[in-house]
Design brief:
Blueprint: E1 10-17, H1 22-32, E2 40-46, E3 51-57, H2 60-63, H3 66-70, E4 76-83, E5 97-101, E6 104-114, H4 117-126, H5 137-146, H6 152-160, E7 165-172, E8 177-181, E9 190-196, E10 199-205, H7 209-214, E11 217-221, E12 226-231, E13 234-239, E14 248-249, H8 251-256, E15 262-263, E16 266-267, H9 268-282, E17 289-292, H10 298-308, E18 316-318, H11 336-341, E19 342-344, H12 346-349, E20 353-358, H13 365-376, E21 381-386, H14 408-411, H15 414-421, E22 425-428, H16 431-437, E23 445-446, H17 448-451, H18 461-467
Parallel strand pairs: 14-23, 17-20, 20-21, 21-22
Antiparallel strand pairs: 1-4, 1-10, 2-3, 2-4, 5-6, 6-7, 7-8, 8-12, 9-10, 9-11, 12-13, 15-16, 18-19
Helix pairs in contact: 4-5, 5-6, 9-10, 9-16
Bound molecules: adenosine monophosphate.
Length: about 475
């Protein structure tokens, strides 16, 4: 049977080559990328002769203890943190994946989602390939193993020409690290250098905040369609696919990346504040205070307040220590889930007309709880402002969005959504405003979740969506 659940993974990846503490630095890098995935974590390290991998379900700091890291040898390492949906979290899908094949012992870490993986997997299944998990990433390993090319870079190149969609990839063998970015550059992949005893070790990460933690210098991004091959002889960079228009994920700037990162060569904080400023111009509100929904709405709310001249007030407090397990009371407490995470500061809100700023509305259920919470704390009016256009269509390139039917904006007007979330007014940033905030004059971003115009073919994915029960 051809199963493929994971076409919506959100992930963080990190790689380092030529450093005696490679695994420890990978651990720190992953720690900085923890926001990109909290379900599982893994590191593979190589010492020129062998490859050792440790991966498990849980947060980076839970998965990697001192003794575990001490077992990861050598001077090269790749790491991966992964988010998955509630129903399909499985150890078999935790990365990096490893395989022993005719190309040696290989490990692979992938951020993104392949849009033709179902077709490829069906073909591989039919000819005897055996899969361990349900992730699209395994397909790449099978294609590499089957290639008649003997050298790893050539075999990988052959595999890459068969796959489509979004992939920022790290491949580690006993003596080589290969780093690849898909020709459209959907997902980020930053390059840097870490100085060690007079030499500069190459480092790679989903976001530059990983470099800040380990003291590495950001040197730019791996170009879409390029492959960097790092071995004992040094580093070479080559193009493996013809130049294509770029389709960087705009949602990285709206929500997903950390504001202290530079993503696609642009500071995320800059984009977020601009989103807020433009939102204030497009959707002003007669109000007394601007309140961010933490943490997703913070930077946009700062921009909104600055542009509108309204005071910025931190009137929703987030508990950062909410784990994945908690004991529910036997008596039902209303909106228990959201109360665990957020609590209003009544003294700031009481009697006020409040502009609440958040980055997006997906299903609308959380937003409704927050609006109710602010009203229950005494707000006279609640005006919700969203720093991007309505999310009308799912992402097939690696962001976890639910099915089209579950996206409230796919079937409801702004006025209907306003009623559903019980706000006094609701305003979204326009597509043009979003483009302006990320300075996208050349059309290098993907806006498919707002427009339903996908930059690639979606071979098989839509059929799969209709047939599978998807949970978030
Ligand atoms: P809801 O009102 O239920 O649609 O939830 C909206 C909240 O979900 C906002 O605070 C967003 O920041 C957050 N959100 C949006 N997209 C995602 C995502 N891909 N993963 C996790 N949270 C998200």
């Amino acid at each position: 049977m051809t199963r493929l659940d994971h076409f919506h993974e959100e992930c963080g990846i990190f790689a380092i080559y030529g450093h005696p503490e490679a695994a420890k630095l990978a651990y720190l890098g992953l720690h900085a990328l923890q926001h990109r995935g909290q379900e599982s974590a893994g590191i593979c390290a190589a010492d020129g002769r062998r490859l050792v991998c440790h991966r498990a379900m849980g947060l980076v700091a839970e998965v990697f203890t001192e003794p575990v890291l001490a077992e990861l040898p050598g001077t090269a390492a790749i790491g991966h943190t992964r988010y998955s949906t509630a129903g399909d979290s499985s150890f078999h899908n935790a990365q990096p994946f490893t395989v022993e094949c005719n190309k040696g012992h290989l490990a692979l870490a992938h951020n993104g989602n392949l849009t033709n993986a179902i077709d490829l997997r069906r073909q591989l299944d039919a000819t005897g390939s055996i899969f361990q998990g349900t992730s699209d990433t395994e397909v790449i390993l099978h294609l590499v193993a089957r290639s008649r090319e003997r050298a790893l870079p050539a075999a990988l190149r052959e595999a890459l020409l068969q796959i489509e969609g979004a992939y920022s990839l790290l491949v580690l063998s006993q003596e080589q690290l290969i780093v690849v970015r898909d020709p459209r550059g959907f997902r980020p992949l930053a390059m840097g250098r870490l100085e060690h005893e007079g030499r500069e070790c190459p480092v790679f990460a989903s976001e530059t905040c990983a470099f800040d933690l380990i003291g590495a210098r950001y040197t730019g991004d791996l170009e879409p369609g390029e492959m960097a091959i790092i071995g004992p002889g040094g580093i070479t960079q080559e193009r493996f696919a013809p130049v294509q228009p770029h389709s960087h994920c705009v949602f990285e700037h709206v929500y997903f990346s950390r504001p202290d990162s530079v993503v696609f060569g642009r500071p995320v904080e800059d984009s977020r504040e601009s989103l807020g400023r433009l939102l204030a111009r497009e959707c002003p509100a007669q109000a007394d205070i601007v309140v961010p929904v933490p943490d997703s709405g913070v930077a946009a709310a700062v921009g909104y307040a600055a542009e509108s001249g309204l005071p910025y007030r931190v009137a929703l407090i987030r508990n950062h220590y909410v784990g994945r397990t908690f004991i529910e009371p036997s008596q039902t407490i209303r909106d228990f889930g959201v109360k665990l995470k957020l609590n209003p500061v009544r003294w700031l809100i009481e009697g006020k007309r409040v502009v609440l700023v958040d980055d997006s509305i997906v299903r609308g259920t959380t937003s409704r709880k927050i609006v109710r919470m602010v009203r229950a704390a005494g707000a006279r009016e609640v005006h919700l402002r969203i720093s991007c256009p309505p999310t009308i269509s799912p992402c097939y390139y690696g962001v976890d969005t639910p099915t089209k039917e579950e996206l409230i904006a796919s079937s409801h007007s702004v006025e209907q959504i306003r009623k559903f979330i019980e706000a006094d007014s609701l305003g979204y940033l326009s597509l043009e405003g979003l483009r302006q905030a990320v300075a996208d004059q050349e059309g290098r971003f993907c806006y498919a979740c707002y427009t339903a115009h996908y930059p690639t073919d979606l071979v098989g994915i839509e059929a799969l969506l209709q047939s599978s029960e998807r949970r978030r």
